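G., the chain you wanted modeled:
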Amino acid sequence: MTSDTTLVLLKITAVLTALLGVLQAVLGFLLVGGTWVGAHGMIGNTTVVVALVTAVVAFVWMRASANKGLFMHAVGVLVLAVAQVALGEMGLRTVHIVVGVLFLLAAVPLATLAIRKPGMRLERIDPARLQGH
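Predicted structure as tokens:
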């Protein structure tokens, strides 16, 4: 996988993670009426999978660009996503909502960082340029 492909995948998966988080928040507000519980849970599980893919792609990008911060941010989002699903399954509603807000506060900046410039772009250097010719 080239660094450009990795960067594009990172941008796509990070944005998708954030969008799924926003969708989860909207569905969470709709749950007050008691509907959409099944969709909320299914999208929550999907969010965990997408956050996992984002962390894996961020790891590949870290290896290519030496940008450890973005990888650690992606892992943090993944941990919050897993905790969020676990809390929802356990029925701990108040903590589930608080962690959901924290997830959004982490996932949206992750997408922003991925879109902006997560590290230096790798480019081929002409060997003649290194020799001073």
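The chain has a mean pLDDT of 87.

Shout if anything looks off.
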